[in-house]
Sequence to fold (622 residues):
Amino acid sequence: MKEFDIIEHTADIGIKAYGANLKEAFANAAYAMFSLIAGLENVRESVRRQITVEAEDREGLLVSWLNELLYIFDVERTIFKRFEVTELGETSLKAEGYGELLDQSRHTLKGALKAATYHMLKIEENNEYSVRVIFDA
Amino acid sequence: MARWDGPLNKIDDYRWEIPKNYKPGMRVPGLIYADEKMLEGIRQEQAAEQVANVAFLPGIVGYSLAMPDIHWGYGFPIGGVAATRVEDGVVSPGGVGYDINCGVRLLRTDLHEAEVRAKLERLLTELFVNVPSGVGSTGKIKVGKKEMDDILTGGARWAVRRGYGTEEDLEATEEGGCLKGANPDKVSLKAKERGSPQSGTLGAGNHFLEVEVVEEIFEPDIARSMGIEDIGQVLLLIHTGSRGLGHQVCDDYVRLLRQASQKYNISLPDQELACAPVKSPEGQDYLAGMACAANYAWANRQCIAHWARECFVKVFGKPLPEIGLQMVYDVAHNIAKIESYEVNGKKASLCVHRKGATRAFPPGHPDVPARYKKIGQPVLIPGDMGRRSYLAVGTETAIKESFGSVCHGAGRVKSRHAARRSLTDADVARELASRGILAKAASRGSLSEEASEAYKDIDAVVDVCHKAGLCRKVVKARPIGVVKG
Fold:
């Protein structure tokens, strides 16, 4: 199954991520985000990080999930390449991220993403499981 | 992206109105500054719809405005200006954006093109090494919690106290480099954690350091009072913002104000316009947090300017006074400010959101520094790295029409992704080199994303502002060396 598509946006960039269920779509959205930031082929899975996020609703949860990962990237300097969303409720999410500490000598950095936004945000769970997010790039 | 087919009624050659009845819920009409040739480009995306959406904000006065560099953003369009009444209007973090106080700083030198060209490669390498840049770049300044609070309240003043620059730099910075009302308690620990390792870094994306030469002087007397007299004179332009700290502040408050919008029964066409009454606790907290991020950005540009000066001294082997590098000005182009305007014949306190727009105050305005009182506030409008940048001054028309605002750059026409697909970094570097522009980038794809063809023509954008009377062109400069994040 395809993990994600890129959505063209003039100033910024968006993604539509898919999954067999919503947890997988959330995980693939995070994967899509990191593949915009860096080439993930050289990233090893030496770090395993628990991530818990809470928000007022599902949409808030999606944005907070992605922005939490950008925060971890900035502060802990971890590039993630794989995610398992273990719990996804209406207002809380639990996940594990796998990746590696940023190593400029081996990792290829592509672009900065400032934040996931609420603009055009869409969570689809009827015909297919997908999520759409526009980032401020 | 769907084409936008809404009404754009011609007011004159440079002003196009979206009538208030276009969409139920608009409180004021929209106004886009553009020439006829730009309209088709504007219709290619949904930016004009965003101008109409911004007109929903409670307390908005005059028009929901967009400058000719308008393009599709999230919530607000880029190039958007919206002023809301402090008394009964709202403040919206989306009207400032995630890169709070992204802005530009211009320094002038006494060097000439030939002298700099001879050492350009070395200069760029030196800048590249001494100004940390790129995705995830971390800085040379280590700050603890107490000092972080000093940055957030002191802005560029903190940097000057630390020995990075002079009092004269502060005089030539919007707000003196320190926005009042900053309260570090209103900035989350997360935001501070992100900001701490990134103090004094350029970052990535469209941020840059650019070595430029003066190509044309439109107003010699005004230019002279800014220290610019000769064609070929070298300038330095710095473009960056508040890095991860600002992004986190915006994210924190968009989240909070999404809830506040519900609490105060504000109905909005886009969640990214989330807002709260200016006078509400949520609105006040955002403004106090935003001021902190704005100050962080001014400290950032101040530190970078200081290191850039050190690089010039090292490469040219002369003391700083012989090189120059005095500040012309520093402007914020993503910010919300409480400013005073005349509305319907009465003085009113307004919250002016500038999202990709530059403040442009006229001669005599109390917020214009003494040295520029006679000429008006310098306005810095960078184009793309392959073309030109402009230096202009603010006007009375801007005060009357656009809440003292003008455009902030060229404005994108091509998405970053499309630009990456159609061009390689090497292609862009070669093409720039063929026109005498040396470019270095920290991140892969950053040159192709920022190629000239991804942007509108800066000459046309600035001409609209000039002819509409929002600013007066003073100097046009072209890049010779670029360091991209």
Observations:
- The longest strand of chain A covers residues 78-88.
- The two ends of chain A are 27 Å apart (CA to CA).
- Chain A touches chain B at residues 6, 8-13, 37-39, 55-56, 59-60, 63-64, 67, 70-71, 73-75, 77, 102, 108-112, 114-115, 117-121, 134, 136-137 (CB under 8 Å).
- Chain A is about 25% helix and 45% strand.
